[in-house]
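quick one, 299 residues, struct below
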Amino acid sequence: MTIKRGGEGWSAWSIMAPALLLILVFIAAPFVLAIALSFTDQRLVPNPRLATRFVCLLNYERIVGDNGFLQAFKNTALFAVAVTPLQSGIALAMAMLVNARLPARNVLRGVYFLPTVVPMVVVSIAWACLFRLDGFFNQLLSFVTFGAAGPVDWLQNESTALPSIIALSAWQGFGFQMVIYLAGLQSINPELYEAARIEGAGRWGEFRHITMPGLRNTHIFVLVTTTIAAFKLFTQVHVLTQGGPRGSTNTVTRYLYEIGFSRGRVGQAAAVAVVFFIVVFAVSMAQRLLLKEDREGRS
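---
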């Protein structure tokens, strides 16, 4: 029996070995290296005359005292707070729509999921045309207001640049969450809805007392993964606004890019990456805690 267990153990390790090796090489090792570099003044292009020095917490002090980093972190947090419920709400609504018995529901599923598979660079360039002064959104605004509202420079106005990127991101990404919600909806026992109808519950009662509780774990997964993805906002900003106007759309990941590649301060960029990891890790731990509480509550 002992030999058999040992054999099963070796088989399990041999199966996991490739995945563990990839995690070690591409995740664990780079993160450990980033922590080490964050305590140095390492530059992107090493200077033979200037050796890399250990600077202790100087890089962390610099980013905490840098208004550019604080504004980028604020913008990223505002983006995550806004886009997460917006994108998740649209995804849930669309999932309920395509889950209904509609004649063309399979076509609708493909249409709604299509933006997710289109590269974000392509989506950003397409939306840049829509945001132009003579683009679709300004023409729509003029039509709705009967010409009373003039054209808006959506991407160069501090009050509209970030909301514009939020709208773009919510539209592009809701398809993935829709698929997750659709799987959650199909896992709910249909007999619960039948019993609710017999009891005289309306659509709102079914949604409130059956759909929402039945999607609890799905909600947690969607909200947390969407929040993590939102914190990594980069492509839309880099293509559309370059962080402007006046830093109103700059994000943590783009700030990291500027510090590490444009200014060549690899050590300081590594400190930003470590802080970013801590934030993402905290969100992941919140997900684990919520899932644990849900399982304990149901047991």
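The mean pLDDT is 87.
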